[in-house]
Specification:
Helix 7 runs parallel beside helix 9 and helix 8 packs antiparallel against helix 9. The protein has 221 residues and is mostly helical. It has 10 helices and 2 strands; from the N terminus they run E-E-H-H-H-H-H-H-H-H-H-H. Among the domains are: 65 residues, Serine Threonine Protein Phosphatase 5, Tetratricopeptide repeat (Alpha Horseshoe); 89 residues, Alpha Horseshoe (Serine Threonine Protein Phosphatase 5, Tetratricopeptide repeat).
């Protein structure tokens, strides 16, 4: 606060033309304090990480998701999305640990159960994980996502015709599901339909740059 003395004159002896002056202290208001930005929450970091992953900015996404989990090791969205990125990078053991915890936290979350299916198939190299894909199809949520997970799992198992069929089911439910479209392109290429496969993949990437982020570990001859 700033103390600002001002002189205020008050007539005392009007007949003599004299005045007595008294000093008044005026308190000026303090300048407003600088607002402190709110601390970022684990949820906010997880959502930003998800958006970065969708934009195919994988390194930045991983950094934000890891920051979220440093604040809250049980942040479910961050666990699920980091598991998917780790899976795409070929780090299956780490991906499996993350997605298992995410599934424990939300056992009836369709997207998490679908991701568990895909990552189990990738990590275990068996079709045991397909049971999770089948369960995902029974849970509330977009069946397009569940069918896409099943297509991814079939693709990892080298079952290209079954993968194309699953991706087709996803696209029947949601025609603009870009991850399903990209996956169908990969499966078509793997089955020998190179031209159709490239068309699917190019179109998917045009509208969603991160459409192929979950398929980075898939090899197509």
């Amino acid at each position: 606060m700033t103390l600002n003395p001002l002189l205020r004159c008050v007539p005392v002896l009007a007949l003599l033309g004299l005045a007595a002056c008294s000093t008044v202290t005026v308190v000026e208001p303090a300048p407003p304090a600088q607002a402190t930005p709110p601390a970022e929450t684990a949820e906010a970091l997880a959502r930003r990480g998800h958006q970065l992953a969708e934009a195919n900015r994988v390194d930045e996404a991983m950094a934000e998701l890891s920051r979220a989990l440093a604040l809250d090791p049980r942040q479910q969205l961050a666990l699920r999305d980091r598991a998917i990125l780790l899976h795409a990078a070929g780090r299956q053991a780490e991906a499996l640990a993350d997605i298992k915890l995410a599934a424990e936290l939300k056992p009836d979350d369709m997207r998490t159960v679908g991701a568990l299916c895909v990552i189990r198939v990738a990590a275990e190299r068996s079709d045991a994980g397909l049971a999770d894909c089948d369960r995902a199809l029974t849970l509330p949520g977009s069946k397009a996502n569940a069918w896409t997970s099943k297509g991814q799992a079939q693709l990892l198992l080298g079952r290209h015709a079954e993968a194309v069929a699953a991706f087709n089911e996803a696209l029947l439910v949601q025609a603009n599901h870009m991850r399903a479209l990209f996956g169908r392109g990969l499966a078509r290429q793997a089955a020998g339909d190179t031209i159709s496969g490239r068309i699917d993949m190019s179109l998917a990437l045009k509208y969603l740059p991160g459409a192929g982020r979950e398929y980075l570990g898939v090899k197509v001859s």
